[in-house]
Amino acid sequence: MAPDRPAAGRSVPEPARPIVDVRHLTLTYQTADKPVYALSDVSLTIGKGDFISLIGPSGCGKTTLMRVVADLEQPTSGEVTVNGMTPEQARLKRAYGYVFQAPALYPWRTVERNVMLPLEIMGLPRAERKARAAEQLRNVGLAGFEKKFPWQLSGGMQQRVSIARALAFEPELLLMDEPFGALDEITRDHLNLQLTQLWRRTRKTCIFVTHSIAEAVFLSTRIVVMSPRPGRILDVIDCDLPAERTLDIRETPEFAALAHRVRDGLKEGHSYDD
Ligand SMILES: Nc1ncnc2c1ncn2[C@@H]1O[C@H](COP(=O)(O)OP(=O)(O)OP(=O)(O)O)[C@@H](O)[C@H]1O
Ligand SMILES: [Mg+2]
């Protein structure tokens, strides 16, 4: 008998499979005048339930990295898997929800019908579509706004509708590209709090792009600091703050120390020549 075979009836625990695995990813855009080196040798493993923030100077390739994970760009070299699949397979299986920087809602559809759109495409029955939309709108604090149109809502509320839409088909992975970038600070604080509570409830794996150090420290389990273009990973910082976070945590020395480390990483990588 092979010595390493488990005894009958006993199962050997499998090592946890990463939700996103990026290996030696390089991406160069071919443009009319000269190639643009967007990402250089980026490797990153994201486990189930992680909340990862990508932070780095404008143009360093954060959106590009998300778009590769979402199968919206093809790497020049390197490999990416999403839940053990190629990005294309993951896209076809709707393994992720994508929240864009602008809410991208259809103005002629009500809030509810915007959230139900991907479910219609998936062919879910009407009753289930309605139930899921109601649940996700409740999740983002928008119960009662089902019949409004997007243009009747504030920017922050529209952004919450797009988060509800991304959550509605229950993806394993949520990709969010600066979803709160255009909002005032008070609204942003409020949405940060809602998002961290939502994450605690659902434990979705999240990749979140931000330019705000405080937002990254507040929301994340890990922060990935990127260099200016071509984007490389300069530092990966474990955010070991308690999972239960209120906005007051931003006043603590632990929070300040983490923010300091992110700022140092960004400063180190910064250059002003383009
Ligand atoms: N389709 C494209 N064709 C050519 N170059 C591109 C394309 N998309 C992005 N780039 C370039 O690749 C680099 C990385 O762009 P990307 O949008 O990923 O940056 P980013 O980190 O998301 O920036 P920001 O913080 O401003 O959103 C930039 O220099 C950008 O000009
Ligand atoms: Mg971007």
UniProtKB/TrEMBL annotation:
Domain spans labelled ABC transporter: 22-253
Top-rank taxon, per record: Bacteria
Alphabetically ordered keywords of this record: ATP-binding, Nucleotide-binding, Plasmid, Transport
Keyword check for Nucleotide-binding: yes
GO MF annotation, one: ATP hydrolysis activity
Key word Glycosyltransferase present: no
One family name in Pfam for this protein: ABC_tran
Family: Belongs to the ABC transporter superfamily.
Protein name as catalogued: Sulfonate ABC transporter ATP-binding protein
Species, as recorded: Azospirillum thermophilum
